[in-house]
Amino acid sequence: MDNRIRSVEENIKNKQTRNAYKEVGAIKAGFQPHMDLCRGTNNEILPKEEEIKTRWKTCFQELLTIPATVDQRTPLESTYINQAVTEEDWKKNLQIYWT
Predict the structure, then answer these.
(1) Is the CB of residue 94 less than 8 Å from the CB of residue 64?
(2) Would you list the DSSP string of the chain?
(3) Cα(64)–Cα(55) distance, rounded to whole angstroms?
(4) CB neighbours of 77 closer than 8 A, spacing ≥ 6?
(5) Contact 89/66 with Cβ under 8 angstroms?
(6) Which carries the bigger pLDDT value, residue 17 or residue 72?
(7) How far apart are the first and last CA of the chain?
């Protein structure tokens, strides 16, 4: 720390204000912890990067997958994979996911 302060003083004496301000900013910033954690399906903490990626993948798959419902469609209509989704279905699926 003393070396950094001396470096700032020398930069100011040598009229290198840009370097002095950079050094002061680095000293003021100090240590800023960064957390890369995620919660799993059972609310457990997932610390490993691969587990976090897998959780995000499953989360988005759950969001984008629409559960099959029994309705009055004909067998031919229900065989299509890319059926149009109504706004009501979308809201219902989101409500199920977030509750």
Answers:
(1) no
(2) -HHHHHHHHHHHHTT-HHHHHHHHHHHHH--------EE-TTS-EE-SHHHHHHHHHHHHHHHHPPPP---S--HHHHT-SS----HHHHHHHHHHHH-
(3) 14
(4) 83
(5) yes
(6) 17
(7) 51
pLDDT at 2: 80
Q: How far apart are CA 34 and CA 46, in angstroms?
A: 15
- State the greatest distance between any 2 C-alpha atoms of the chain, in Å, as a whole number: 85
User: Quick check: 36 pLDDT over 80?
Assistant: no
Planar angle of CA 73, 82, 60, nearest 5 degrees: 120
Q: What span, in angstroms and rounded, lies between the C-alpha atoms of 72 and 77?
A: 10
The Cα 17–Cα 8 span in angstroms is 9
* pTM tops 0.90: no
Mean pLDDT across the chain: 77
